[in-house]
Amino acid sequence: MIRILDFTFALFGLLFGLPILAVLTLIGLFDTGSPIFRQERVGRNRKPFILVKFRTMKKDTASVASHLASADSITHFGHFLRRTKLDELPQLWNVLKGEMSLVGPRPCLFNQEELIRERELRGVLRARPGITGLAQVNEIDMSTPVLLAETDQKMLQSLGVTDYFRYIFQTVSGKGSGDRVRK
């Protein structure tokens, strides 16, 4: 049921959001010269996949988790994208392809070994990673790997259609601030 909802919402989101995606891509082109960001992430069952999103940091920023990156590396347009969560829109493509879900644990980098270990212990990596979830709406990010893995596990144990819609609604209405970055 969740996969059907994911596919349907991702397809309609991409179709109806195409004008917004085009405008944001054009602005991003002027902002960084490369508006789309691609990065290998840990997927379901530790299978790697390429996550796509709008670039919010300068092109030469090191490939590390957001909480390890410097706030100086975020562009002015990137701040807007992060604040409005519009940087996540291209991930609808990952959802459409079945690599992600709208709701699930945020996909981490392969160099985040502590988080991967904690998620493996709790069975979190058996689920599709998501754009949003319980941790994101409660401002729990990858800087606290044990708490994040525990929260992901808790979410997955009770995730049903009601919670699915609740997390999406909370995210769209502005609950949660996204991944922290160093000052």
From TrEMBL:
GO function terms (MF aspect)? phosphotransferase activity, for other substituted phosphate groups
Please list every transmembrane segment annotated in the UniProt record, as residue ranges. Answer: 7-30
Q: Where is the Bacterial sugar transferase domain?
A: 3-172
What is the superkingdom listed in this entry's lineage?
Answer: Bacteria
What are the record keywords, sorted? Membrane, Transferase, Transmembrane, Transmembrane helix
Per the record, the similarity remark reads: Belongs to the bacterial sugar transferase family.
List, alphabetically, the PANTHER family matched: COLANIC BIOSYNTHESIS UDP-GLUCOSE LIPID CARRIER TRANSFERASE (PTHR30576), SLL5057 PROTEIN (PTHR30576:SF10)
Identify this protein by name: Sugar transferase
